[in-house]
Amino acid sequence: MEYQLTQEASEKAKLMFERAYVQRNKSFGNARLVRNMFEKTIERQANRIAKLAVITKDKLATIEAEDIM
Predict the structure, then answer these.
(1) 3-state DSSP call for residue 52?
(2) With CB atoms counted within 10 Å of each terminal CB, which end of the chain scores lower, N or C?
(3) Residue 12 to residues 29, 33, 66: CA-CA distances in angstroms?
(4) Domain map (residue ranges) of the chain
(5) Torsion (CA) 19, 40, 34, 68 in degrees, nearest 10
(6) Cβ 68 vs Cβ 37: under 8 Å
(7) How far apart, in whole angstroms, are the C-alpha atoms of residue 60 and residue 45?
């Protein structure tokens, strides 16, 4: 599936990645951080969508700021 981030979600993700990079230590794992963030985001998105009365392909493909951990 090809996901689309809202503008707010994109800004939130960018801020989180920048913050993680600035606060990194020698055990910082860039790929691990991204994978974990993605998995948690998809989980939160699924929980948000499950509460909707009408689910569309567009809603399934959209990541909103509240989905980002």
Answers:
(1) coil
(2) N
(3) 20, 15, 9
(4) 4-67
(5) -40
(6) yes
(7) 8
What pTM does this model have?
0.86
**37: nearest Cα among 58, 50, 19:** 19
For residues 30 and 24, what is the distance between their CA atoms, to the nearest angstrom?
9
27-56 burial, b at 16+ Cβ within 10 Å, e below that, comes to: eeeeeeeeeebeeebeebbeeeeeeeeeee
Q: What is the pLDDT of residues 4-15, one digit of tens each?
A: 999 999 999 999
1 forms beta bridges with none
Residue 3: CB atoms within 10 Å? 14
Residue 58's nearest CA partner among 69, 47, 49, 67 is: 49
Question: Rounded to the nearest 5°, which phi and psi values hold at 54?
Answer: -120, 125
